[in-house]
Write a structure and sequence with these properties.
Layout (H helix, E strand, L loop, with lengths): L10 E7 L8 H14 L3 E7 L5 H10 L6 E5 L4 H5 L4 E4 L8 H8 L4 E4 L4 H4 L6 E4 L4 H5 L55
Parallel strand pairs: 1-2, 1-4, 2-3, 4-5, 5-6
């Protein structure tokens, strides 16, 4: 999937699955992407699945920020798990959220998650184990963990001394489940999944 999307092996893919509406926070994600890319220790690419009324405005803002060459708007997809398998970090920037199904899907794929501390999202993740929760609507907080995360899928301390707030131990696995191939779901091929919740 990565090669099909034009993503090289040394790029860190920050991805999200969401409806492109203000309440889901895609505008926060775009601003955070600009901040993170300016500081990145690794080459970052951004992969967003979903569609909505803000798409044209978001595409224009991405171009304005000079992110056009590293941003992929994949649209509404049925092959969600294949695209999740192409990601290295999953981000849920919602300003309001119900169950948080997408972050559950991301964690099932052994992806580290950065999500807004809002509504049902804290109940959908294992904070400080496989996820980091940040203040909603804050591009700086949302962007802070991304730059130093390698494709090896471990949280890496990049913003201060051991124990600094918002940082994870570099030796802790990102997900409490057993490691498995990013290309294969348990028990067989990757299942098809519904698109972003409305």
């Amino acid at each position: 999937m990565r090669s099909g999307l034009g993503i090289s092996g040394d790029e860190v893919v920050v991805g999200s699955l969401l409806r492109l509406a203000r309440v889901k926070g895609p505008q926060v994600l775009v601003e955070a992407a600009a901040l993170a890319r300016a500081r990145a220790r690794s080459r970052l690419r951004f992969l967003v699945l979903g569609d909505g009324e803000l798409r044209a405005r978001l595409e224009a803002r991405v171009r304005e920020l000079g992110l056009g060459g590293c941003w992929i708007f994949a649209g509404q997809r049925g092959d969600v798990y294949e695209h999740l398998a192409a990601m290295d970090v999953y981000v849920q920037p919602s300003l309001n959220e119900g169950m948080g199904r997408a972050v559950i899907q991301a964690q099932a794929m052994a992806l580290p998650v950065v999500a807004s501390r809002v509504c049902g999202l804290p109940d959908a993740v294992r904070e400080e184990d496989s996820a980091l929760l940040v203040a909603p609507g804050d591009p700086e907080a949302l962007a802070r963990p991304w730059p130093g995360w390698p494709t090896g899928r471990r949280f890496v301390r990049v913003w201060g001394p051991p124990g600094a707030p918002g940082c994870f131990p570099p030796t802790r696995p990102v997900c409490p489940v057993q490691p498995r191939s990013r290309r294969q779901a348990p028990g067989g091929p990757l299942p098809r999944a519904p698109g972003p919740a409305r």
